[in-house]
Amino acid sequence: MRGSARHLWAAVAALCIALPGTAQAGQTPRSLPNLAAVTPFYVEAGPPNPSENPLLPPPDPSKRVLKFTTEVANLGSVPLDVLGVPSKDEPTGLDAEQCVGWAAPGVCSARTRVGTLHFHDAHVHWHFDGFALHELRRVGSDGAPDMSTAGLVGSTGKTSFCLMDSERVGGGDDPVGTAPTYQSCTGVRQGITPQWADVYEAGLPGQEIPIDGVPDGVYALVITANPAGFLLETDTTDNAAWALVALSEHGNRAQLVDHA
């Protein structure tokens, strides 16, 4: 099915060249987006989440995972705008090209390749690869996450996301607009509008870190957006956020701990 889809994407990509928000060489760039991870605000523990694809096998109900909701906001003045184009190197995926210059609101003046898009079998839609990293870490003597190798307890690894406008947030300088622009998970175009955030709920597959064998205690859940730096931003100092999580009842209960 994906082989024949490549011909469709070629036609779609050709059509997108003429649409607002695509590259027009020779125009002056405006700026880049600013992705910011929001402090984790919801956790729970239990068996793994089932897939959204009924054709995939169910997870093992005897396993225990830490589930969490994550939110990544665009606090910049222009959108994070990613266009999917046919790839020579990714036979089952697409090259992801980010808009890196804006001639005017909604008019992209330059794009560059920043990664890949693949169809996610468990979520049944297209994802940008390596968008976020979720880690469970030990807590140091200063009350902050131990970011050393020895401090890592568990991780999702770099995970893919559908980039879309899920929820309105505050902040951002000189916003281009506050109406949501990205509201679908296609391989054609994805992104996050200024003053909007991409939210992944705790009940989704992949929003979980294995905690079988992890002793009860207090740990730090660390969320990092754009962990490899593939996406271009104005500021990367706000890409990570964390919260303290107390695990109890042998992995059957998790709750946030106030660390203010």
Provide a descriptive summary of the structure in words.
The chain has 260 residues and is mainly β. The protein contains one helix and 16 strands. The strands form three sheets. Strands 5, 6, 7, 8, 9, 11, 14, 15 and 16 form a nine-stranded antiparallel beta sheet that branches. A four-stranded antiparallel beta sheet has the order 1-4-12-10, with no helix packed on it. It has a three-stranded antiparallel beta sheet with strand order 2-3-13, with no helix packed on it. Strand 15 (240-248) and strand 16 form a beta hairpin. The radius of gyration is 19 Å and the shape is globular.
Write a concise synopsis of the structure shown:
This protein is mainly beta. The protein contains one helix and 16 strands.
Tell me which oligomeric state these chains represent.
single chain
Number of contiguous helices: 1
> Average pLDDT value?
83
Q: How would you spell out the order of helices and strands?
A: HEEEEEEEEEEEEEEEE
Q: Which segments are poorly predicted (pLDDT under 50) over 5 or more consecutive residues?
A: 1-29
Number of E-type strands: 16
Shape: globular
Helix content: under 10%
Radius of gyration: 19 Å
Structural class of the helices, strands and pairings?
Answer: mainly beta
The profile of the biggest β sheet is: 9 strands, antiparallel
- How far apart are the first and last residues' alpha carbons, in Å? 51 Å
Portion in strands: 35-45%
